[in-house]
Amino acid sequence: MSGDKILSVDRLTMRFGGIVAVQDLSFAAERKKITALIGPNGAGKTTVFNCITGFYKPTGGAIRLTHDDGKEIALQRLNDFRIAKQAKVARTFQNIRLFPGMTVLENLMVAQHNMLMRASGFTLLGLVGAPAYRDAEKRAIDLASDWLKRVNLLDRADDAAGNLAYGDQRRLEIARAMCTVPALLCLDEPAAGLNARESAALNELLLSIRNDLGTSILLIEHDMSVVMEISDHIVVMDHGVKIAQGTPREVRDDPKVIAAYLGTDEEEAVAVMESGS
Amino acid sequence: MDYFAQQLINGLVLGSIYGLIAIGYTMVYGIVGMINFAHGDVFMIGGFIALITFLILISLGLTAIPLILLVVLLVSMAITALYGWTIERIAYRPLRHSFRLAPMLSAIGMSFVLTNYSQVAQGARVKPIPPFITGGHTLHESPDGFVIQLSNIQIMVVITTIVLLAIFTWLVSSTRLGRDMRACEQDQTMAALLGVNVDRTISMTFVIGAALAAVAGLMYLLYYGLVDFFMGFVAGIKAFTAAVLGGIGSLPGAMLGGLAIGLIETFWSAYFSVEYKDVAAFSILIVVLIFMPTGLLGRPEVEKV
Amino acid sequence: MTAPSTHTTKPATGIAALLKTAVINALIALVLFSLMVGIRTEAGSDGQLTYWTRFGELASLVAAVFGGSIVIELLRQWIGPAGTERLVPPALQKGVSLVGRYLAPALLIFTLLVPVIFYNQRYILDLAILVLTYVMLGWGLNVVVGLAGLLDLGYVAFYAVGAYSYALLATNFGWSFWICLPLAGILAAFWGVLLGFPVLRLRGDYLAIVTLAFGEIIRLVLINWQDLTGGPNGVSGIPRPTLFGIPLDRSDDGLAAKLGIEYSATHRIVFLFYLILALALLTNWATIRLRRLPIGRAWEALREDEVACRALGINTTTTKLTAFATGAMFGGFAGAFFATRQGFISPESFTFQESALVLAIVVLGGMGSQLGVALAALAMIGGFELFRGLETYRMLVFGWAMVLIMIWRPRGLVGHRAPTVYLKKAQAISSDLVKEGHG
User: Fold this and answer.
1) From C60's CA, which of B258, C75, C256, C425 has a CA 20 to 30 Å away?
2) Is A93 part of any domain?
3) Does the pLDDT value for residue C304 go beyond 70?
């Protein structure tokens, strides 16, 4: 695999007590590409995500993020909010985590917290109503409206986020992550629970994020129609280890992948595959 | 050394009392997930009921001390258990599916109700009883005249605690009620689907917790020879500290935490200052929660993202 | 509140069932009250405990429970089973919120006029000052509990820090109120940070109990550190506030003499009234302003979902600390005012009951609602006043009020949240959606 890597995961290991959730996992995500992390339930995908985004501290291994300007950041050394703030990695959650009691617009304003905090002179300038802060807030609202237009939620801007339909909440969460202006966007099962139409719209949204904005995306997904259609590169995990990687085509034809998904051994999988094709 | 040994005995006895109260906190927290703020006051009510029962029995002319103790124990356990049941029914059950702050505030309100109910009903003055169980054993006498005493009342407190703990452990581990309680602790909805009567199980939790608090109240009365309407607040916080120290939700932990708090408080009073003994207990609560939030025997909590 | 209830007891329907319920309740009451009410104990002069019976009181209490159960059961059948429908229909709620829009300015104007209307009624002025003090405390705690969702049961500690800061600085060094006021706020905020730093990692009930313990520690230290605080006797002779250096007394330098009007003790009361009103309004203004700033939005976001906040790069520790410190600072201001108003403070004024009272005001007000908190303070303190002279019954009633209010309206009086920013139209958000935080 060639090209410019934004994220390289090197021999990542995560243990919980005696359970090894991820073992010696290495893979890379290319800049301005969509990389998918797939695997059966319990393969350790979300654990990898949590390590990358700082919610877990890896037991071993290194996670390196390279920004566009060439600056390298060792993510395993940063924790918690600093990964989003300094390394510019944004994420969504498998079980949507919006701020349900705040409006759609407020959700997107909170995403721009760090920028607005600086603009408000860490509250002091904002408290006295300095014009510089007012301008910054206006720009923040503009960015938020822009994203609401993209995810088709502009007319719901003043509704409570908790009142949105499920599919809308998913899109809002992606918009919220994008409002942090991330270098890498990590999506944890963005298509889960979406119907076919919503799923197609999601594909378009993610492709436009990659093509128009050049944001690199790493996603976990079960929905193969999404994964196969938009991914540039796929990494397959099972039982905490990488079992295959490559283009969607390569992965689709890999007997080990099919075996992992069907829960059969390799020979049977090959048989299934041959009979199917 | 002798002084130390004496304090050790005193601390263990005090710790037994805290442990009995702490079990009530830990059980309720385990099942309903709330701090039963009024539990300290239930302990106080238990002490008062024991006191009043004593008075009545003595004025009836009873002299057989074991009989009196048994009757007092049973009466105060029964009536206090009913208090526990009623409190859950009135103040907590309607709020079981409400938002999280509501049961907590309701419990604080209930605590005020009980404290002041007792003050209105029995007056604000401290109520002493004459030493009831006297005598003791001299364990050791040092040349300089210091004596390590183990009084009969101390023996009684410890033995009662051990017996109750044994019964209680059997109850939780080997009876249907115990199994239902553990099921509700894991998952109330699932337990209900499997035919566990969740309401009754929770009620029983409060009943058992209150009965044990009543025993603690009786022990306190016998040991210190007095009760007052305000004793539930501080004792309650200390017992809660004990429950947290032991690992909230864990029954042996509650007892262990109780003993630890009793020892710490006694030694602090003996070697540092009596005035700051409560400060010491509260500081320990803070320190434990910060550095050991799961306590000594609690299960570690993995953050779910 | 739509969660399935496991409550399965059916409401009694027939007369027989009604009576059965009432009889059972009466029997339970009989057992509960039998010893505690039926027998009264008292320590005699010789230290011996005596007792006498009070079967009359016992009988009337049991009868009250019997009658009460019948009334409650009838009401329940009349209104319908509790929990299946809202007690307040949405249309009425809309009306209330409409009234709310004009209620706040009207209330403010009325408050400004209170000293004019009730100039000769010292009692009402004193009560108004007391209510305003609690309004301010409520607004201060609201930042912590209502906005940031951190449950603080030791708020009175910061009130105490403020009060003692002013009292000690003024009596020992003779510093004026206007210098000490900001210092009291800063010191309280400092203590807020000091406490907050280690404990804010804790979740939910643990945070509550630690803050409670902290409040008690402060009180116990105030009682026992006699050299500094005067112990249980407290600090007396705390200087009264001045109007920027002009004392409000009978002296020749006094305000009355300077203005050439006749001195009256009411001047000082009126001054204190406007002082606490100004402090309370400052708290209100700052809170409303902060809510619309990124820090305030981060507080509310923290209450909604802490994990999501971290994923968005928000430093949750400093965000919580600022909330804690801000709330503590307002508590400190209120404490300094309390000290100067009373002229005497002692640890007795800073018990857990005060913390619980302020928390009850915030929750009854509807967490996060400024108007709701003000109304709740008025209702609570006003209600308390009704029991003046019945001190022992006062806390009994307060406790029952807390329980019943929680059952009646766990979300408080004002059940919606106003957004801090909007594109087209600000819409109130139902409090059913708003989270209460886990801290």
Assistant:
1) C75
2) no
3) yes
